Design the sequence.
């Protein structure tokens, strides 16, 4: 029995009401298997049962080649390489479970929490850091668990920001999201709401007027779009971005540095320029987490820094995201951008310009 089929059978009728039509059993579906095969993907039943597979019609249309050379296909189509699990790879690579005081809440940093409302997505990315949990289990946070999660946030006045994550929160019904927004609005210390989503990229038709009307009531509302390649930005995606902006949302982007997808400075340059022209600020580019079976996507930190170095000076600061590493195990995110400054023994500095020239900057003690 496929993972998704098991998942659907476990859902209560109440949860089914808010599940999207796209959460259908797929690995049993011959058509989907044929499709995966046609793109050169792996239709190994073990792989399909282990990790959820889902792709939208819109994403399919953006695939221009087979899985071996198309930057979109590689993100979604199963490959046999996923069966190779390295000893360093972990089921919970960023240690969410360690920082989960109640079901659905990850409280890792003092002033903010992740509120994981669901573990379903519009599409399933083959490199997902939560791939072991995504598309499985009960699907949506139960009413009881949501109440406990909101109570936790209410009882912790240091929480200034709530980040709706998942799974993808925008896969949920507007009614469910409205209920969450209403409950969070009553908590005075929660001043900022942020949503991490791939829906505007993979299923832009879900950015409806009803959803935008809800968003228009909530200020400030930051939405972070997950996008890895400019090929993903279709006219439908642009229209969804415009609708979110018209509703007053502040849009940022996050990408994952992926071998064979976007590990070249010219590819990232095109993506980041396109986003900035659309009014979306590139926020983070993530170093790939140590999720099981993802080593074929992994770029070394050294190569990642070299790519970031090539972007500096070449594209506007507006187009430059931070290069981030989530420390394996849960110690949090840190920027791992290349260094441009080195302190000398006399407390002066050597600073490197974008084109590699070196300059000195005097010590503060010489300037007092
Ligand atoms: S959309 Fe995000 S949470 Fe969902 S599978 Fe992709 S990376 Fe994972």
Sequence:
């Amino acid at each position: 029995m496929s993972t998704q089929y098991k998942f659907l059978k476990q859902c209560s009728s109440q949860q089914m009401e808010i599940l999207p039509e796209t959460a259908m059993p797929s690995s049993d579906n011959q058509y989907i298997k044929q499709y995966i095969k046609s793109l050169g993907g792996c239709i190994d039943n073990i792989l399909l049962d282990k990790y959820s597979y889902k792709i939208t019609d819109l994403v399919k249309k953006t695939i221009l080649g087979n899985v071996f050379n198309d930057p979109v296909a590689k993100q979604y189509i199963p490959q046999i390489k996923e069966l190779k699990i390295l000893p360093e790879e972990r089921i919970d690579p960023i240690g969410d479970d360690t920082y989960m005081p109640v079901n659905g809440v990850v409280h890792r940093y003092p002033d903010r929490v992740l509120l994981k409302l669901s573990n379903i997505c519009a599409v399933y990315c083959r490199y997902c850091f939560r791939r072991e949990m995504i598309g499985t289990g009960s699907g949506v946070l139960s009413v009881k668990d949501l109440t406990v999660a909101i109570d936790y946030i209410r009882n912790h006045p240091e929480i200034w920001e709530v980040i709706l994550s998942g799974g993808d929160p925008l896969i949920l019904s507007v009614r469910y999201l409205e209920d969450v927004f209403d409950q969070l609005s009553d908590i005075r210390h929660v001043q900022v709401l942020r949503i991490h989503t791939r829906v505007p990229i993979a299923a832009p038709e879900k950015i409806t007027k009803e959803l935008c009307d809800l968003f228009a009531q909530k200020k400030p509302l930051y939405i972070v779009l997950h996008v890895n390649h400019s090929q993903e930005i279709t006219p439908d995606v642009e229209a969804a971005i415009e609708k979110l902006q018209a509703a007053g949302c502040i849009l940022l982007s996050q990408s994952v540095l992926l071998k064979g997808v976007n590990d070249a400075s010219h590819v990232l340059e095109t993506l980041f320029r396109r986003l900035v022209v659309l009014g979306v600020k590139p926020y983070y580019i993530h170093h790939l987490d140590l999720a099981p079976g993802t080593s074929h996507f992994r770029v070394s930190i050294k190569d990642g820094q070299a790519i970031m170095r090539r972007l500096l000076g070449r594209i506007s600061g507006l187009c430059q995201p931070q290069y981030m590493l989530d420390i394996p195990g849960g110690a949090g995110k840190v920027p791992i951008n290349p260094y441009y400054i080195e302190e000398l023994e006399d407390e002066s500095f050597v600073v490197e310009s974008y084109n590699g020239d070196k300059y000195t900057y005097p010590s503060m003690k010489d300037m007092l």
Confidence is low (pLDDT under 50) at residues 1-27. The pocket of iron/sulfur cluster is lined by residues 121, 124-125, 128, 130, 134, 166-168, 198, 226 (CB under 6 Å).
